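@channel sequence for tomorrow's demo:
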Amino acid sequence: METLTTQTRQKNDYKDVYQTVTDTIIQQLEKGTVPWHQPWTGADSKLLQLPKNFSTGNKYRGINILLLWSAAIEKNYELSEWGTYRQWEMQNLW
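structure tokens (generated this afternoon):
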């Protein structure tokens, strides 16, 4: 029998943030990267500044930092500026 939580998740069909974080950390560890270690030299050292929202200038906090760092490393992004689709679209940078 399914639990109420499982039924609710299936109805809402949303991403479980805890599972996303766990999967991201495991993927990084399997690649040989310890995602919570700051590289002090090399190309990745400038990348891992605190991520900030390019539109508001606000720095991300908490687990969002780890997730954004992991995404930046995985996709070889050069900047640590982030934003929503709508924010990028409003800047005509999309």
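heads up for whoever presents: The helical segments are 4-12, 17-30, 43-47, 63-75, 85-90.
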